Structures are given as structure tokens and as C-alpha cells.
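Thread: zinc ion complex, take 2
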Amino acid sequence: MLQVTKRMTFAMSHRLTGSYAGACQNIHGHNYTLDVTLRSMWLNDNGMIVDFAKIKAHIGSWINQHLDHHTLVRNTDHELKGFLKAQGSEMTEVPFNPTAEGMVLWLSGVLQRVLDDQVAEKGRIVLQHIRLYETDTSWADWERDA
Ligand SMILES: [Zn+2]
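Output below.
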């Protein structure tokens, strides 16, 4: 098995809601780093799993459209949604508390669909691992089960 990893970055704001009580209930932002690892059993005619530029073009573009300089807002956070809408501010609504763990689980589905649609060459390339750094010292991982 062969793997490649592409690192991408984005700035995003969020806040945690529900029963959570702590510093992250305040609206704040992070400069996230996302490592996306793809695997394949064999290489293409160019000796690649996939061109890094192609990963950036498709997954990077999805990140720019949905996460970069957006607020990730929980669908039950009506107060924040209303405020952002009134401001005309970019937001992406999700059905979970926007923690790093929640995000990697969500991204595993979303990014696999982006790959299937635009990159994967009918199943040759599989999303294997996602690591999302919220800070230099805090991150969450999703790994495909063997
Ligand atoms: Zn945070």
C-alpha cells in the first residue's frame, strides 16, 4: 500500500454550545492545518498516486468554499446563525458541536465524496487518514478502518 499526504491550511471561527461550559463557548478562531492522506495499491502512468496539485485543486477548493474565513456553526445555534446571516458573513452549518473531533468525522465523509467525484479514478484512490490541527499542540485524527 502506498500513501501520500497533502497539507492544507485555513482560518475558521466557531464556538461550542450545548452542555459544554468553558473557554470555547466564546466565538473564537483558529488557523487550522489539515493533513489529508490518500492511498492506492498502485501508481498511475505518471508514477503517482495522484498529483499533489490535483488534491489541492479539488479538496483545497472545497475548503476555500466551505471553511476558509467561514464560521462553522452548529445547526441548533440559532442565535449565532441569525447574527451571521444579518451580517452577510460566510458560515457553514453542521449538525454537531464543531469540535476538531466532530470535524474530522464529518470531513471523512465530505472529502471522500469530493475525491469520488473529482479525483479518485473510480476507486483507485481511497481516503485513508485525516489529521486536523486546531493548534500546534492539539489535533484530532480520523483513520479508515482496515
Ligand atoms: Zn476553538
